[in-house]
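Notebook p. 47: complex prediction with pyridoxal-5'-phosphate.
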Amino acid sequence: MKNPTRIPPPTNLSHFSAKKVSSQCEKKEFERKLIGQAEEDAALRAVKRAREESSEFGAFDRYGGIEVSAYEKEFAAYIGVADAAAVSSGTAALHAAFAALEIEPGAEVICPPISDVGGVAPILMQLCIPVFADSRAESYNVSPQGIRAVLSPRTRAIVVAHIAGEPCEMDAILEIARENNIPVIEDVAQAHGATWKGHRCGSMGAGGAFSMMGGKHHTSGGQGGMVTSSDPDFLRRARAFADRGKMFYPTGIVNEVAGLNYRMTELEAAIGRAQLEKLPSIVSRRQTLAKRLAGHLENSNLFRLGWTPQGGESSFWFLRIRILGEQTENFKNEITNAMNARGIPSAPTYTSMIYHQKWFKDRRVFPRSRIPWSLCPHNQNRTYEGCCPNAEAAMRNHIRITLNESMSVDLIDRVAEAMLEIENQFSGAGC
Ligand SMILES: Cc1ncc(COP(=O)(O)O)c(C=O)c1O
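Predicted complex, structure tokens below:
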């Protein structure tokens, strides 16, 4: 990578309206065409079965069904684990996987500050204390160094999230886990098909948790999730938690533990199976497009495709684009406004960091209390402000651009062209 060059932020963008815009994209060129005939056929197959075969458990229930268990087996084979448990969402998958660790309330759990709330809320719901690990400044993902820095005698688990489809540095993370005898849960909601040194994300920790919500690489019909593992005991506990303690009949009829109903339906699984067949081509198409963009940006002084650690193959849920040099929030807004004006869906940031969210700052998990913090003498007064300076820098240094497998090569070429033109204009050369 070239040395980042600092480009002075522009004071205003009035010259944009006056200039001829040469590289223009249309918003509709970024539309995703994820659902097709195969999904329609699969859904109808499930409906037909529900009409024709009466189940004592009711139509579409996984009890007595065939689609959910087939989807679990096919998904496990794709990820490279012994088994999988299908659930109703990514949040449910995280919750079931985390509950399967059977960690005592009050324990500390290392987790990512840059993630979806669904990836961290389960820790709080199980009355554990989130301890955020820092990233590298060039990544949204927790780093091994960040994890080591916050380990304590009270750490009982590590949750890592492969954000934007980019794998975390799993060798070093698993090494820390082994040294300290702590399990790792992989949050793979955004990283279907991503690999670390040839291993699919979701196959390396004690368990993986996937989201099949409609915007993910593949969907089980709007919502859905999957817990993956090669540890039968772990998966058995996750299943039990996700089925009110019953373990997805017929293996469990008695409610053995307290749990919730997070079961996936037959209809969802039928669609998920059709989608799963498309997943390898979805992933490779995204990789082709992202790498092509990276090539176009190689000599840019302003933009770079986000850094992925060596050994990692991203599956690119979105394009994380590094803005080179120290740049202000205002500058990022100007850049993404310019991109959006050229029809390129982009945003100055990916999300709001968990510890910056108001509910978290107010410690409002269980209303009218400060539980779980108030239950833990060591953590009653834990403060989070500024605890992950590199992750904050990563949020400052990147923008987000939409990517999906329906986009054409020609479109990605025009996106790159537009970005380079914007760079010229911002550096003064094009004014
Ligand atoms: C990293 C991460 N974890 C967890 C979740 C929660 O998944 P779901 O929305 O399916 O509950 C998401 C959802 O976007 C996510 O991006």
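Notes: The mean pLDDT is 92. The domain at 37-274 is CATH 3.40.640.10 (Aspartate Aminotransferase; domain 2).
Next step: compare against the earlier run before touching the bench.
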